[in-house]
Design goal:
Sulfite Oxidase, Chain A, domain 2; five-stranded mixed beta sheet; five-stranded antiparallel beta sheet; OxRdtase_Mopterin-bd_sf; Immunoglobulin-like; alpha+beta
Amino acid sequence: MVAPGASPYFAVGSAVVDHTPDGIREWAIGTFGTSDKLALFVGMGVIIAAIAAGCGVAERLRPPTGAVIVAVFGVVGVIAALERPDSRWTFAIPSVVAGLVAVIVLRILVGMLRKAGDTIAHTTGAEVGEQSPPDGVGRRFLLAAGGIAVLAVAAGVVGRRVLADTTRTVVDRTKVLLPVPRSAAPPVPVAADLRIPGATPFVTTNDDFYRIDTALQVPSLTTGDWSLRIHGMVDNEIRIGWDELLAMPMTERMVTLTCVSNVIGGDLIGNARWLGVPMKTLLDRAGVQPGVDMLLSTSADGWTCGTPVSVATDGRDALLAIGMNGAPLPVEHGYPVRQVIPGLYGYVSATKWVVDWELTRFSDAKAYWTTRGWSALGPIKLASRIDRPDSRSEHARGEVVIAGTAWAQHTGVASVDVRIDDGAWQPAQLAEEYSVDTWRQWRFTWNATPGDHTVTCRATDKNGRAQVETYASPVPDGATGLDSRTYTIT
Ligand SMILES: Nc1nc2c(c(=O)[nH]1)N[C@H]1C(S)=C(S)[C@@H](COP(=O)(O)O)O[C@H]1N2
Ligand SMILES: [Mo]
């Protein structure tokens, strides 16, 4: 009856995520990185505690002000829960119950204090709060407040256990046997991974892979729950189930995924081996009608993503993926099925927990981030990054190995150059290219001289275009500018 998304805490948190202005969102991602969700929860907890304390004081001084504020919070919870894309009317229940309980608890506790205060005022003529209450009242109040707090925490912990019912999904995931791909990913050549200590490995492990999404609670689907509905401007409306998907020929590819929110030098990028069915196979089955230019995909929790159909069908390895680095997708990376499309930022391509495809037009539909000021199209911008040595580290004069990565998904990196201070650009040594859809490592051996120096890198793609040097923030379609680091040479 009560879905996880109905929790007032998560519903309000989700509403905050959905309605946060771009500037603040960028600031939060820049400051907290992939811990942004934890930061949100802690921040909400602190604010709620402060307001609750204020309500206690207000209720004591000017009843029923505190109770009214608490009730308003309940209403906010109801609105936030009903606003969830997957909500039903039952989503209102937890907030209504929470609001009622909170008002009752507040009235009881403040009532205890007021009675104590009245007694003092009566016997001594003192003002409320000027003197400690008579023996026993303070202790009784503390016991009641403490008991209620313990109950609340216990209810919260049990509730979380029940609501975060990922057990089913986790168990389901252990039973998945990934099929052998018809077209396997080539092995990584030794020369594609320079293995320089402190530099980023060529393949990102599932545990180290960055995670970005709006889901405060990971959607928990089983393979049995999953199906993909394909509808809209198609010849045949179809629904594909898990078994049907597994029976289709699979392709395995190494693809580097990047987030549009990645700042210059940022780490919202990862490279993994994905296993899945080419998206074109499914689009062909449904029969895309003329005039369609957008694939609007929707996740189980209602997040939407608009992808140019031309990109998903132009022959690149756009996959409806079920495997990541040889394992079923981790739950937080989209279990059981997600999209992976080389060359597009995740917000316009990489729908996790994907359950719905609507074929439509960019002029008719808008996706989640497009309605929040981000560009409708999101090709990944050419970029390069210094990975080692650590920023502001000290080194002895002589050879210092600078190493990093560069990416120009679906075009390929042609060269990377390095500049010391305002000097001339000098070519870095490139690792072997794995494919145009993956990032490429580079290294530069610097003959460092004493002093403070700034090292900057710049990539050029195979179309001969160099990185844009002027700084631009990620909004609305990806950051530009050059990554640099400062070192002290002794
Ligand atoms: N369902 C869903 N899918 C989503 C998102 C989301 O918020 N919800 N975020 C997208 C964005 S912005 C990025 S960058 C990638 C990140 O994928 P990852 O978390 O597996 O690295 O997922 C994409 N898919
Ligand atoms: Mo993203």
